[in-house]
């Protein structure tokens, strides 16, 4: 595997780069050293796809074992993408020796700098307790980048294509769950049926639910897992939640996966915006043993969800009355406000395009 390093990174590594080494783009990476929150961060970008791998908070002892870290980071990130384990190992075995050289291509260096900018701008999402930043790597790799033809592409989709060409088979196969998620409204029927890979984290499930219900991710949330009608555990998104203890065991949602609780438990409640208190009831309907995607898909739906900050169901009813009555004194203003809040009829095709990029 060829790692083409910037001078800054080579100086940090204190190694003499190989002068002559050629490798196919799929097994070649450009790499740079940047600093985020005073922590040393190495960003690797694949030459073929521009897929990005992030190593964060590196210390001197970590630099000494950089070869192993790079291999482990590629392995972990691709496995977290739900690429078949045997394909990941074949990919790593194809070019097992790591060789460091200088950068040789200005275009690739410019692309690497863009990848570094994307990592830096998303720096607040880096996990300070981990060197291998799989979640950040996958997120940055979903961001559109321009090519020489003026088109825009997603590095992760190019990487999937390259891996399928390399392996000559479908690269995804995982267990997935089919959920019916119902928004708890007395006067309106709003629900979504979604298939979700079982290795999805609760943090990712939050993102999925935000997309399928059209929320803006402007408020806090939590999950409660139930054994029949008895709450088993409360998964929270903020350390502040621990200032308000309850009888239900409370844990952070970070890195907790659906597979930690499903299928043992089949009911989950998701609350978004503790002011408007939107309660979503998640019911397990089915388990798919061989799901050939690594992202969620909305299979079915009914109803349009309320706009953000409308004031709960009572506010939503008042909102609907105002937009339905041209004689209402605030009719035009409420329609304009609803548009600003993204209140539009549910569009499953658009939602599924968004889900594909949410990863």
TrEMBL record:
SUPFAM superfamilies: MM3350-like
Domain DUF6933: 2-157
Domain Plasmid pRiA4b Orf3-like: 176-350
Signal peptide: none
InterPro entries: DUF6933, MM3350-like_sf, Plasmid_pRiA4b_Orf3-like
Protein name: TnpR protein
UniProt source species: Sporolactobacillus laevolacticus DSM 442
């Amino acid at each position: 595997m060829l790692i083409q390093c910037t001078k800054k990174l080579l100086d940090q590594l204190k190694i003499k780069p190989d002068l002559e080494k050629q490798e196919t783009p799929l097994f070649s990476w450009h790499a740079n050293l940047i600093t985020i929150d005073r922590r040393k961060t190495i960003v690797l970008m694949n030459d073929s796809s521009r897929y990005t791998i992030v190593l964060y908070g590196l210390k001197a002892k970590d630099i000494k074992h950089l070869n192993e870290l790079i291999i482990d980071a590629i392995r972990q990130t691709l496995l977290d993408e739900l690429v078949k384990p045997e394909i990941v190992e074949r990919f790593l075995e194809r070019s097992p020796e790591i060789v460091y050289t200088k950068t040789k291509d200005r275009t690739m260096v410019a692309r690497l700098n863009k990848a570094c900018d994307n990592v830096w701008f998303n720096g607040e999402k880096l996990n300070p307790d981990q060197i291998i930043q799989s979640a950040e790597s996958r997120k940055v790799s979903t961001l559109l980048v321009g090519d020489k033809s003026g088109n825009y592409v997603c590095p992760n989709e190019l990487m999937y294509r390259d891996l399928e060409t390399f392996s000559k088979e479908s690269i995804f196969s995982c267990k997935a769950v089919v959920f019916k998620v119902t928004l708890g409204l007395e006067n309106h029927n709003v629900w979504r049926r979604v298939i979700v890979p079982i290795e999805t984290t609760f943090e990712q499930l939050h993102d999925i639910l935000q997309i399928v219900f059209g929320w803006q991710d402007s408020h806090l949330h939590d999950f409660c897992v139930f054994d029949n009608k008895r709450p088993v555990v409360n998964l929270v998104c903020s350390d502040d939640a621990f200032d308000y203890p309850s009888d239900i065991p409370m844990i952070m949602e970070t890195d907790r996966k659906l597979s930690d609780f499903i299928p043992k438990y089949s009911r989950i409640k998701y609350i978004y915006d503790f002011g408007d208190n939107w309660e979503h009831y998640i019911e397990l309907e089915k388990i798919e043993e061989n799901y050939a995607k690594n992202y969620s898909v909305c299979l079915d739906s009914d109803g349009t969800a309320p706009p953000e900050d409308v004031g709960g169901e009572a506010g939503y009813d008042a909102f609907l009355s105002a937009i339905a009555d041209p004689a209402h004194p605030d009719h035009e203003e409420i329609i304009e406000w609803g548009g600003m809040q993204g209140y539009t009829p549910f569009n499953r095709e658009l939602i599924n395009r968004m889900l594909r990029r949410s990863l």
